[in-house]
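Backbone-to-sequence.
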C-alpha cells in the first residue's frame, strides 16, 4: 500500500462519532517550552527530539489556515500544583513568567510573534500570535481547567482536537480526557509527543481517542484541505 493510499484511508472503519474531522480541527501544542527541552531548567526526556515533528504539523496547520493553540505553564506565586509547590516556592527557576525558559521552543514559534505576554496570559486572556494561532496559560494539568480554551475552540467551530507536545502522562493525558468529556473528537499525533508509550495509545483508544503519525496528518491536510503554502 502506498503512503498516499494509506493516508487517504486512515479513518476507514472508525465509528463516525469519533472519526476525526481535520477540516474542523485545532492543533493543541502542549508545554513545548524551553525549560522542558534539553538544556532547560526541568528537561523532559524526548521533548527536544519531537520538536521537528511538531514543527511539521505547525507548518501544515498554518498553511491550511486552521486553528493552533499553544498551551503553556507559567509558575508564579502559590497557584501551583501541590506536587510542585514546595520546589517552586523554594525558588526553583522553572518557566517563571518573563524568563527565557518560559518561552516556546524557537523552532515552533511563529516568525515575528514576539514573546509570551505573561501578564495577559496569567489574567486568563488569549494571546494572539498569528492569523489563526494563539497561546493560553493553564494553571494545572489540563488545558481546559480554568482556561479560555473551550470557548476559543467553540468560537472557531472546532469539533476535533489534535494533540501534540510535552510529556504525555501528565498534561496531554489530562487534556485528552477533558476534551473527551466535552465531546471533542480527539486525535493524538503519535510521533509528536514526548513521554508516549504504546500502552498509552491502547489506553486512550478505550475512551475513543484516535492516533496517527504526523506524516499522515500532514499529507491529509496538504491534500484534502488544499494547504496554502
Amino acid at each position: 500500500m502506498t503512503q498516499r493510499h494509506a493516508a487517504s484511508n486512515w479513518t476507514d472503519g472508525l465509528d463516525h462519532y469519533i472519526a476525526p474531522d481535520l477540516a474542523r480541527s485545532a492543533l493543541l501544542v502542549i508545554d513545548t517550552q524551553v525549560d522542558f527541552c534539553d538544556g532547560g531548567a526541568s528537561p523532559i526526556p524526548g521533548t527536544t527530539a519531537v520538536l521537528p515533528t511538531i514543527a511539521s504539523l505547525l507548518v501544515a496547520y498554518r498553511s491550511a489556515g486552521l486553528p493552533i493553540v499553544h498551551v503553556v505553564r507559567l509558575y508564579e506565586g502559590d497557584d501551583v500544583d501541590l506536587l510542585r509547590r514546595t520546589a517552586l516556592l523554594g525558588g526553583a527557576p522553572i518557566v517563571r513568567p518573563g524568563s527565557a525558559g518560559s518561552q516556546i521552543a524557537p523552532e515552533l514559534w511563529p516568525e515575528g510573534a514576539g514573546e509570551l505576554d505573561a501578564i495577559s496570559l496569567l489574567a486568563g486572556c488569549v494571546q494572539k500570535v498569528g492569523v489563526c494561532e494563539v497561546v493560553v496559560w493553564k494553571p494545572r494539568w489540563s488545558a481546559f481547567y480554568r482556561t479560555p480554551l473551550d470557548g476559543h475552540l467553540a468560537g472557531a467551530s472546532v469539533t476535533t482536537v489534535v494533540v501534540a507536545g510535552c510529556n504525555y502522562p501528565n498534561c496531554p493525558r489530562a487534556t485528552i480526557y477533558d476534551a473527551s468529556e466535552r465531546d471533542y473528537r480527539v486525535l493524538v499525533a503519535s510521533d509528536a509527543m514526548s513521554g508516549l508509550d504504546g500502552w498509552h495509545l491502547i489506553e486512550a483508544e478505550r475512551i475513543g481517542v484516535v492516533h496517527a503519525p504526523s506524516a499522515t496528518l500532514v499529507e491529509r491536510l496538504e491534500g484534502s484541505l488544499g494547504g496554502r503554502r
